[in-house]
Structures are given as structure tokens and as C-alpha cells.
């Protein structure tokens, strides 16, 4: 999955001459040894060009619109560049016409030629809506379904005994203990009063917190997801009766109990919670869970620089979602009839200057700082959105862990352009909540002075907090610029990246254009920093 984002952006870089090896770039976080393509796409082979081709009415499968049943034997015959079929989740696509448009290059696609490419796809493309992208390439279904569908559990009503349907606070302690000794996966129960429905999830995990609980309740559908390391537990039901829009979430952090409280629209007795949906009561790897999107309203759009805007989105009333520091979300728009998904990293509405207390969490709004590219497919459409319009926003993802900062004494942030976005919450978290931090330094690479995001806020922060220092480095400065100039280099890094003490514990976070991050990681390693001391933000 991490790979795809690079891949998607890389194909649009004209003159892309770097061979980006993801393994080098991501170091120990890399899950697979897949090298990025160094072959730029030919002109006329962008995502938009692909969308146009799919709308042209051309027969892309060669089957004249027929759908067929494909045997494994048949699939394996279509394993050449000029005749390539791939199976994803039981559906077979003729990807031959897509070859030249694949951002990762033809060779990447060929790895799955004539086979079931589901695992490979999930590793690198999980967030891409292939059904929408490849719908004109659909050949048919596999005759023998290669992947078992997720287990759907029995109806909820049958799992709830009559005596537990009345709201009585919590389950008897001994029941929780008894079940936890047998099974470490979470479980849930539900209760009711005349006016409320309370769903209680026993995560059996200490240190539950609001960022690990994502709830969406809309139109009689309830989805409550609990994130537990790389796993996710889901309660997902079509509710038996209507509830009002607002949802409350209570978390007993120490015992890992999560309560989702819904308000009944009518004071009637519910015989059951509702009908389970596909993912209900499953505890599976996060990467195996499809991305969930909810529609958020654009409430404001303000200029940050000449080309970058701060978008404020309002979450629906029935949504409880706090994006953790260092994580991103995906935005989804339908562009020319095709779903296009891109990642963005939520920021704060501004840089708080008073770091005495942790900021109060605004659970209703999400702020995104987004650069609008003059030929950008997604950002142009985004900029077109009017106040009051809606856009789909996914659950958060990302592999940054706050614990990486919590033990650091020196924090160094290397940002290139909008690679500044993950640094915003990180900076705030570090200065507010990490007591052992002695120094925080942001080295911010931009093209020109006009491109520097939140420059005056950063300068004010540096004046206000003596632990914080900011250094701006420009790659295309005007002749009036008296500050540092250049691109990321060993020389620049050795000047600015230093430990405050010889043996101090350091964390260096880096984010920006892929070559910037790739080169930065390499220079840091050459300077003697270990893999554990470097975190590269990627998708
Ligand atoms: P694209 O269409 O991908 O175009 C990118 C560039 O190529 C632009 O310069 C465009 O002008 C040029 N281009 C496009 N088509 C052509 C063509 N045919 N010929 C010549 N040039 C062309 N970005 C942010 O602004 N804020 C964030 O918070 C943020 N967070 C991110 C988090 C992650 C994890 C990742 C991986 C990326 C993040 N990004 C962020 C980048 C974002 O996901 C998009 O890549 C970015 O917004 C560009 O999307 P686009 O579709 O508008 O541009
Ligand atoms: P930009 O083109 O304005 O460049 C900003 C600076 O980055 C430049 O001044 C230069 O110092 C450096 N840089 C640019 N290209 C370079 C290269 N080829 N080699 C070395 N250094 C280079 O940046 P932008 O348009 O704001 O783009 C920001 C990038 O950050 C995007 O590619 C975006 O996808 C990425 N981003 C990633 C994440 C993430 O992975 N979590 C989050 C936000 C942004």
C-alpha cells in the first residue's frame, strides 16, 4: 500500500530520473521488496487519459461486453504483456490495455499476470478503487472463487440473551474475565433503556483512547471500529430502529471498555440491535479491512500561500473520528465518472503558541492544508468545491507511532513543501506532551519565500518557545534572499542535524517529495544515524 502512493505521484513527474527503491526509502518499515519503476509513463498515459479511454466506448476486454466464467487454467494462459489477465478478489480483469497507464510500470503489473494478484494488490494498492478504475476491463468471475469471503457471524439477536437487553451499566465482571481468559479478541454486548441504546465493546486492551475508536452512525447504519495495533475489531449493523443523528462515545481507558451511546428516535423496546453487516464482529488485520469513507461538509477554505489552502471539513454528527498524529486520511472524489482517491494529512487550524496545556481536541472539524497544482487532477477538482459541498473522507492510516517521540530528547523535522503537514501535529504534540524533549528543530525546504507555509507562525513559535528552532532553506530563492539556499544535501544536513548532547536520543522525521525523502534518508544514514532514529512519512 505504501508503494502505490509513490507510484501514483511518480508517474506524473516529468524527467523522473531516480530509481526509487522503496526498500531503501522505507527501511525496516518496508513490507515487500518491490522496487519502484524508473520508467516514466509516455505522454498521453496519465490517469486522466485512462479515464478518457474507459469512457470512449472502446471494447477493452475483447469480449464485446460479454462476461465469462474463467477457470484457473484459462487465467494462466493470459500471462503476456500483449494478453494479460489478472484476478482480484475473484474477479478477472483484462489489464492489457491498462499496461501503459499503470503508474508502477508494466513490469509491476506483469508480476500478477495470469494469476490471482489479490495479495500483491493489497500490499501496494489497497486504497485504490480498482473496481471503478478497471470496470471496463472486467472479463468475468473466477469459476472457482480463490478467496473465502469474510466469515459472517450469526444474527446479533441470537447472540444476545434476553436478560442482557435491559440497560444495566456493565456486564457482570466474571463474564468478562471468563471470556477474556478463553479468547483475547474483543467482544461486544448491547443494552437499552427507554431512550438509549448502549453498545459496549470490551477490547480487553489497556490504554484505549479516543484515537483508536472510530464510530459512524447514519441512516440506521452503525459502524464502530476499534484499532488495536495492526488489527481492527468491527461492530457493523443495520439498526433495528431509527436513532437520532448524534452519537456519544465513552472510553474507560484503563479497562479498555468502549461505550457507543445512541439516542432512540422513538421510545420503543428493541427486540434486537439489528442485522449484522458483512464485517460485523470480526477482528482482522487492518490492511484486510476495506477503507471506509463518510461524507464531510466543506465549511471553509482559506488561503495559506499563493497556491496552498486550508480546507476545513465538518464531520457528520454521527461520526467520532480523531486522526492520530502522523497519520493521513484519503479523500475521494468522482472525477469524470471515476472514483479517484488521494492521501492528505490533517493539520491543526493554526500552530498553538501556548504549549502549557495539551490543546482541547476539536472532534467536529478536520483541517487539511492542500497545495493546488495547476494541472493536478485531484486538487483542481478539490479547489472547485464550494462551501457547503461534500467530500468523502476515509479512516486514518499511517505507521507513525507517538511512542517514537515520547522518549526522544532531540526532535528534528525535515520538511519539503507540503511535507510540512505531518510536522504540524507532531510539533504540537512534542512541545506539549513530551517532557524529556530538549530541542525541536524544523528544517523547512521550499522553492521560494512565497511558498513557505505558516512562516510567521513558525517564527513566532521559535521566539516563544526556546526549545524550538526553525531554518528555512530555499531551492529557487530570489536575489534578495539572505537565508540558506540549496536542496537537501549531506553538507546542509551535517550543518543542521545535530544532537544536543553527544549521546542524546534523537528522532529525525522526514517528509516531502519522494526524491527529497529518499535522498534525505540516505544522507542521514551516511551521517551515521540509525534506521531507528529516522522516520520517513510515506503513504
Ligand atoms: P497530480 O495530478 O498527481 O499532479 C501532480 C503534479 O504533476 C502537479 O505538479 C501537476 O501540475 C503535474 N501534472 C499532472 N498531470 C500532468 C501532465 N499531464 N503533464 C504535466 N504535468 C502534469 N498534499 C497536500 O497538499 N497536503 C497534504 O496534506 C498531503 N498529504 C499527503 C500524504 C501522503 C501520505 C501522501 C503520499 C501525499 C500527500 N499529499 C499531500 C500529496 C497528495 O496526495 C497529492 O499527490 C497531491 O495533492 C497532488 O494531487 P493532484 O491529483 O492534484 O496532482
Ligand atoms: P515542492 O516541489 O514545492 O518542493 C519543495 C522542496 O522540496 C524544494 O524546494 C526542494 O528543496 C525539495 N525537492 C523538491 N523536489 C526535489 C527533488 N527532486 N530532489 C530533492 N529535493 C527536492 O514540493 P511540493 O509541491 O509542496 O510537494 C510536496 C510533496 O510532499 C508531494 O510530493 C507530496 O506527495 C509529499 N507529501 C507527502 C506526505 C506523506 O508522505 N505523508 C505528506 C505531505 C506531502
From TrEMBL:
Entry keywords, A to Z: Endoplasmic reticulum, FAD, Flavoprotein, Heme, Iron, Metal-binding, NAD, Oxidoreductase
Catalysed transformations (reactions): 2 Fe(III)-[cytochrome b5] + NADH = 2 Fe(II)-[cytochrome b5] + NAD(+) + H(+)
Domain CS: 183-274
A GO CC term assigned to this protein in UniProt: endoplasmic reticulum
SMART domains xref list: Cyt-b5 (SM01117)
Membrane recorded as keyword: no
Main location: endoplasmic reticulum
Residue ranges annotated for the FAD-binding FR-type domain, each copy included: 291-403
Cofactor (UniProt): FAD
Source superkingdom: Eukaryota
GO biological process, one term: superoxide metabolic process
E.C. number(s) listed in UniProt: 1.6.2.2
InterPro entries for the chain: Cbr1-like_FAD-bd_dom, CS_dom, Cyt_B5-like_heme/steroid-bd, Cyt_B5-like_heme/steroid_sf, Cyt_B5_heme-BS, Cytochrome_b5/Flavoprotein_Rdt, FAD-bd_FR_type, FNR_nucleotide-bd
Pfam families named among the record's database cross-references: CS, Cyt-b5, FAD_binding_6, NAD_binding_1
Molecular-function GO term, any one: metal ion binding
Subcellular location: Endoplasmic reticulum
Domain Cytochrome b5 heme-binding: 67-143
Top enzyme class: oxidoreductase
Keyword Endoplasmic reticulum: yes
Record family assignment: Belongs to the flavoprotein pyridine nucleotide cytochrome reductase family.
Name listed for the protein in its UniProt record: Cytochrome b5 reductase 4
Amino acid at each position: 500500500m505504501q508503494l502505490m502512493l509513490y507510484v501514483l505521484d511518480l508517474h506524473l513527474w516529468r524527467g523522473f530520473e531516480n530509481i526509487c527503491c522503496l526498500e531503501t526509502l522505507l527501511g525496516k518499515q518496508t513490507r515487500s521488496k518491490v522496487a519502484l519503476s524508473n520508467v516514466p509513463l509516455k505522454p498521453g498515459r496519465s490517469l486522466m487519459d485512462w479515464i478518457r479511454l474507459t469512457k470512449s466506448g472502446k471494447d477493452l476486454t475483447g469480449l464485446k461486453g460479454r462476461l465469462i466464467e474463467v477457470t484457473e487454467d484459462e487465467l494462466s494462459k493470459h500471462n503476456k504483456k500483449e494478453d494479460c489477465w489478472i484476478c482480484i478478489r475473484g474477479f478477472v480483469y483484462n489489464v492489457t490495455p491498462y499496461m501503459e497507464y499503470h503508474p508502477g510500470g508494466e513490469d509491476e503489473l506483469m508480476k500478477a499476470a495470469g494469476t490471482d494478484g489479490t495479495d500483491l494488490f493489497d500490499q501496494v494498492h489497497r486504497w485504490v478503487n480498482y473496481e471503478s478504475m478497471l470496470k471496463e476491463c472486467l472479463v468475468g468471475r473466477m469459476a472457482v472463487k480463490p478467496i473465502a469471503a469474510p466469515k459472517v457471524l450469526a444474527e446479533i439477536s441470537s447472540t444476545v440473551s434476553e436478560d442482557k437487553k435491559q440497560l444495566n451499566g456493565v456486564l457482570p465482571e466474571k463474564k468478562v474475565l471468563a471470556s477474556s481468559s478463553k479468547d483475547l479478541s474483543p467482544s461486544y454486548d448491547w443494552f437499552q433503556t427507554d431512550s438509549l441504546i448502549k453498545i459496549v465493546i470490551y477490547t480487553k486492551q489497556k490504554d484505549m483512547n479516543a484515537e483508536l475508536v472510530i464510530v459512524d452512525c447514519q441512516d440506521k447504519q452503525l459502524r464502530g471500529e476499534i484499532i488495536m495495533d495492526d488489527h481492527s475489531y468491527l461492530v457493523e449493523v443495520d439498526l433495528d430502529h431509527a436513532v437520532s443523528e448524534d452519537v456519544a462515545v465513552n472510553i474507560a481507558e484503563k479497562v479498555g471498555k468502549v461505550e457507543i451511546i445512541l439516542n432512540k428516535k422513538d421510545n420503543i423496546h428493541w427486540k434486537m440491535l439489528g442485522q449484522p453487516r458483512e464485517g460485523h464482529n470480526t477482528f482482522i488485520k487492518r490492511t484486510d479491512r476495506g477503507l471506509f469513507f463518510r461524507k464531510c461538509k466543506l465549511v471553509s477554505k482559506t488561503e495559506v500561500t499563493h497556491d496552498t489552502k486550508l480546507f476545513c471539513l465538518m464531520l457528520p454528527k454521527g461520526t467520532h473520528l480523531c486522526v492520530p498524529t502522523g497519520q493521513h486520511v484519503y479523500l475521494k472524489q468522482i472525477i469524470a465518472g471515476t472514483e479517484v482517491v488521494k492521501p492528505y494529512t490533517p493539520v491543526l487550524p493554526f500552530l498553538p503558541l501556548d504549549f502549557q496545556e495539551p490543546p482541547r481536541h476539536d472532534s467536529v472539524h478536520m483541517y487539511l492544508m492542500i497545495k493546488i497544482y495547476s494541472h493536478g487532477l485531484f486538487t483542481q477538482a478539490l479547489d472547485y468545491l464550494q462551501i457547503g459541498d461534500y467530500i468523502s473522507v476515509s479512516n486514518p492510516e499511517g505507521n507513525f507511532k507517538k511512542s517514537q517521540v515520547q522518549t526522544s530528547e532531540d526532535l528534528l523535522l525535515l520538511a519539503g513543501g507540503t511535507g510540512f503537514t505531518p510536522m504540524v501535529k507532531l510539533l504540537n504534540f512534542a512541545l506539549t506532551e513530551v517532557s524529556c524533549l530538549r530541542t525541536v528543530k524544523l528544517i523547512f525546504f521550499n522553492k521560494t519565500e512565497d511558498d513557505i507555509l505558516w512562516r510567521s507562525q513558525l517564527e513566532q513559535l521559535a521566539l516563544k518557545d526556546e526549545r524550538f528552532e526553525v531554518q528555512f532553506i530555499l531551492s529557487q530563492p530570489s536575489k534578495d534572499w539572505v537565508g540558506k539556499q540549496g536542496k537537501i544535501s549531506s553538507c546542509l544536513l551535517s550543518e543542521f542535524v545535530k544532537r544536543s548532547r553527544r549521546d542524546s536520543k534523537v528522532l529525525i522525521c522526514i517528509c516531502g517529495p519522494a526524491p527529497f525523502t529518499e535522498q534525505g534518508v540516505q544522507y542521514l544514514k551516511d551521517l551515521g544515524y540509525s534506521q531507528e532514529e529516522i522516520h520517513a512519512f510515506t503513504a
